[in-house]
Write a structure and sequence with these properties.
globular; 2 domains; 3-stranded mixed sheet; binds zinc ion; mainly alpha; 3 strands; Neurolysin, domain 3; 21 helices; 509 residues
């Protein structure tokens, strides 16, 4: 191995690839520890696990700020290998440069202070939520917002500070653009929610409050996950309190769920959601594992895969034409004599509610909108933290027509802000928007998907996603990929069309 990066671009590129794969191995060690912490570890060892993870993240941060990485990138950027930004080499150089710049621009003291405030913030938030006491969390949140503003200034931005934070979760996205798309989505969802609220049709939601034994739920969930294409030879399903998916190795993708005997949808649609994330990870090219060409694009694109399988597939009538007889056999006590149309309406009930993670497909994005608008105002200094609970309640009244009775079920319900994750929320809605674009394009290419779902055929849709989304890794940005696949720019049109098409007949408008 040469120490002189100037010698041969090809050799320098190989060194860069080795660096990237080795860094990914360190990250994946943390993924294993993180998965274990959330599924198996005795809670009593929490402090020790936090120390392990802190040690590891320090080590990884030092790799990113290592002078040698800078030299390699500086050199490679001047060579022909960087000419085509979408080639294997061009993609790697571009994306590693991006992450390297973010790492070196943040002063180490700020990184440390943010990490400490995040751990403390989550502890204080948990207690504040239990006590329904926003005031006890306020000083920590004020500090977090101040530090995140400093972080944005350190990283830099063209237009506004939020861009610098958003960029961590949704690379290349711009606040101004997504503000316009999400505001348009909000303005079209609010009347849709009102139309549904005014409808006199209501599903027999009691069907879903009957008894669904947990062991039968687990068998059914595994069967569905395998049927839609989650590869259990390269993955696992386990139980956790807050479900997640972790792709921790080229052939090791772990999904998790939780079971409640009286809420069968929570586990099943949760499993389909995490399977969607998992199938994306399993569809990334294993030969590029640890390199940008073998990694997912963004949280928004990741969420588009989970939402597509959970909602567009799992809550469709066609899907249940195939699976409902099997569900009736699995849950005879709850579903004997139930008509498929009644079941389908029940799993698609739309009802403005207080809690985001329990929200239905139509109101979900309004919950996200509240958070996006508020965190943007916090960061820009337009909204003092002290006024946050009032602003939260006002937006719930305006968008969803309801108001939280207290802060525990209002402004204190999500972990994100306490952990410093500002700029994360919009990726949930971006996922829904991208999913609708993919479904529209897939239907154009594959014909009547409903007919395929009703026959239990999901491989054509999964192959389409593999071909059009998964196999590219980070070769294209989210915007570029959307243009390449559909010829379109991000818009609320496909999602609104699909929601009207589905909920119009159910609620009679
Ligand atoms: Zn998700």
């Amino acid at each position: 191995m040469s120490d002189d990066p100037q010698s041969d671009p090809r050799q320098a590129f190989q060194e860069l690839c080795r660096w990237s794969v080795e860094t990914a191995r360190w990250v994946s060690i943390g993924d294993v520890l993180g998965w274990d912490e959330r599924t198996m570890m005795p809670a009593a060892d929490g402090e020790h696990r936090a120390e392990q993870l802190t040690l590891l993240s320090g080590l990884i941060h030092r790799r990113w700020t290592d002078r040698r990485l800078g030299e390699l990138l500086d050199h490679l950027e001047t060579t022909a290998l960087a000419d085509d930004p979408h080639s294997d080499a061009g993609t790697a150089i571009r994306r590693l440069r991006r992450s390297r710049d973010r790492a070196v621009k943040k002063p180490p003291e700020l990184v440390e202070e943010l990490a400490r405030t995040s751990v403390l913030g989550q502890q204080v938030w948990q207690q504040a939520r239990r006590d329904n006491d926003f005031a006890s969390f306020q000083p920590l949140l004020e500090k977090t917002v101040r530090l995140k503003r400093e972080e944005a200034e350190a990283i830099g931005y063209d237009d506004q500070p939020y861009d610098a934070l958003l960029d961590e979760y949704e690379p290349d996205a711009r606040t101004a653009e997504i503000t316009a798309v999400l505001a348009d989505l909000r303005d079209r969802l609010v009347p849709l929610v009102s139309a549904i609220a005014e409808s006199d049709r209501r599903p027999a939601s009691e069907i879903l409050r009957r008894r669904y034994p947990v062991d039968a739920q687990e068998r059914f969930g595994r069967m569905v996950a395998a049927a839609i294409g989650f590869d259990f030879d390269r993955g696992r399903l386990d139980v956790t309190a807050h479900p997640f998916c972790s792709g921790m190795g080229p052939n090791d993708c772990r999904i998790t769920t939780r079971y409640n005997e009286r809420q069968p949808g929570s586990a099943l649609f949760g499993i389909m959601h995490e399977s969607g994330h998992g199938m994306y990870d399993q569809g990334l090219p294993t030969e590029f594992w640890g390199l940008p060409t073998g990694e997912s694009i963004s949280l928004g694109i990741h969420e588009s895969q989970s939402r597509l399988w959970e909602n567009a597939v799992g809550r469709s009538h066609a899907f249940w034409r195939h699976f409902f007889p099997q569900a009736q056999a699995a849950f005879p006590e709850a579903l004997a004599g139930v008509a498929i149309d009644d079941f389908h309406f029940a799993i698609n009930e739309v009802r403005p509610s207080l809690i985001r993670v329990e929200a239905d497909e139509v109101t979900y994005n309004l919950h996200v909108m509240v958070r996006f608008e508020l965190e943007l105002a916090l960061l820009n200094g337009d909204l003092p933290v002290a006024e946050l609970p009032g602003a939260w309640n006002a937006k719930y009244r305006e968008y969803l027509g309801i108001e939280p009775p207290d802060d525990a079920d209002g402004v204190l319900q999500d972990v994100h802000w306490s952990s410093g994750a500002i700029g994360y929320f919009p990726t949930y809605s971006l996922g829904n928007l991208y999913a609708a674009h993919w479904m529209q394009a897939a239907k154009t290419d594959l014909g009547d998907l409903d007919e395929q779902f009703a026959r239990g055929e999901f491989a054509p849709l999964l192959s389409w996603l593999r071909e059009n989304v998964h196999r590219h890794g980070q070769r294209y940005s989210a915007t570029e990929l959307l243009a390449k696949v559909s010829g379109e720019r991000l818009s609320s049109e496909p999602l609104i069309t699909q929601l009207r098409h589905k909920f119009g007949p159910l609620y009679g408008f």
